[in-house]
Design brief:
152 residues, alpha/beta, 5-stranded mixed β-sheet, 5 helices, 5 strands, 29% helix, 24% strand, globular
Length: 152
């Protein structure tokens, strides 16, 4: 099976560090050491990458804390290549089986606490196409996916 090169941005320090296999001391993992991956600090509100850089952007448990979620989703769309996808994963979402636990915590943190329908509307409102929201209530998570139009 031939693998093709993909350009992927993982939004969120913990996700990026884990993806690269970085230890507590920041020692590079195999991908980073081979020059195939790296960690770059920046704000999702002004990503330090040219337009159309990434095939995939992932945000695992981070979008709750983005400064301006609607605008930040537009910024993520900017750095996606035509046809590229955004994937958001959330365990803390309104309507989950753990609302009793997450709702007070998210309020205390000042975090966005969205329903599955609100995730869909946000992605659609930011211009993503083919938006899908997959909810696994029994496992306590959801995944929202949107695609940047080829002729955007």
């Amino acid at each position: 099976m031939a693998l093709t090169r993909r350009d992927v941005l993982t939004a969120g320090a913990a996700g990026a560090a884990a993806a690269l296999g970085l230890g507590a001391a920041g020692a590079p993992g195999a991908h980073a050491a081979a020059g195939r991956a790296g960690v770059q600090q920046g704000s999702v509100s002004a990503l330090p990458f040219p337009t159309g850089t990434f095939d995939l952007v992932t945000a695992v448990e981070t979008h709750y804390y983005w400064p301006d979620l609607p605008s930040d989703l537009l910024e993520v769309r900017r750095v996606l290549k035509p046809g590229g996808r955004l994937l958001l994963i959330a365990e803390a979402y309104r309507g989950s089986r753990a609302d009793w636990l997450f709702a007070p915590a998210m309020r205390a943190l000042g975090a966005k606490y969205l329903t599955a329908a609100e995730h869909r509307r946000l992605l659609e409102g930011a211009g993503y196409a083919d938006v899908e929201v997959h909810e696994q209530r029994s496992k306590g998570w959801l995944c929202a996916v949107g695609r940047k139009e080829a002729a955007d």
